[in-house]
């Protein structure tokens, strides 16, 4: 279990009503932002403090891992300069009746503020450029003591529980997004009908895309299964993020068994250019082991082509759930 602090001045109402956290992936200039990257570390059962207008107004319990998701339409003009696709995590929020003002208690909190990525200045004022940042257990305990019984109840509800089997609604948003993109392709009259159909089939790893992947890959890199009936053509750069050429490019793919495809698509595993297997720190390692992933020692699945390496780089930086 980890503890997080989120500044929600612009989107507090939308995120609490909708039961989630959402951030862009990058700054407006395209630079990586550690407070957006922190979204990739959120896991079910984590506890989140919501800081709004100088006060902690709510606490929440994460009910999903972070996943790629379009910007919520309810943000409207509040987020006009944010990119259209970002990170989302589901959170069950509780509005607090005792909304503490950290600045009033800075003498108590100051010893526990981190030297890097702190949510507060030494004066107790908030830092507007911070979206999401981790806080230590001692700082969470100090905040919880100030909040009182509502925090204790939220903490008791999650402590000691196994959240690895927690079900979420995350796939619904992604499916709706991809359905929209698919319909956009079908409506593109400038493309031949055969091209439109191949692009749509590629979404499910079928058609021309699968044939092209199969000329490069012959078996699942993790399990070694090589029977075509048991393999999925999985995009390294997801279909939803790719352009038309990338959606049909065989080098943008691996043949994986369905369970390994799930782990790869959701960012629980990734691959280094030299074939080294990467396991996300938020992944439930016992489950990965049952699915055929070696978690106790390093694994190398073999080299990749230069084209595959380009797509795997996108996967590591934009899909893989990793720590800062």
Attribute tags:
324 residues, ph1033 like fold, 12 helices, 2 domains, globular, 7-stranded mixed beta sheet, alpha+beta
SSE inventory with pairings:
Layout: E1 3-7, H1 12-18, E2 20-24, H2 34-37, E3 47-52, E4 55-62, E5 67-70, E6 85-95, H3 106-109, E7 132-135, H4 137-147, H5 149-158, H6 170-186, H7 193-203, H8 207-214, E8 232-235, H9 244-248, E9 253-256, H10 258-265, E10 269-271, E11 277-279, H11 285-290, H12 306-318
Parallel strand pairs: 1-3
Antiparallel strand pairs: 1-7, 2-6, 3-4, 4-6, 5-6, 8-9, 10-11
Helix pairs in contact: 6-7, 7-8
Outline of this structure?
With 324 residues, this protein is of the alpha+beta class. 32% of the residues lie in helices and 18% in strands. It has 2 domains: 3-158, ph1033 like domains (ph1033 like fold), CATH 3.10.590.10; 204-318, no CATH class.
Domain module count: 2
Distance between the termini: 17 Å
Structural class: alpha+beta
The CATH class name of the largest domain reads: Alpha Beta
Elements, N to C (H/E): EHEHEEEEHEHHHHHEHEHEEHH
Largest sheet descriptor: 7 strands, mixed
Instruction: Specify the CATH homologous superfamily of the largest domain.
Output: ph1033 like domains
By DSSP, the count of extended strands is 11
Number of helices: 12
β-strand amount:
15-25%
CATH architecture of the largest domain: Roll
Poorly predicted spans: none
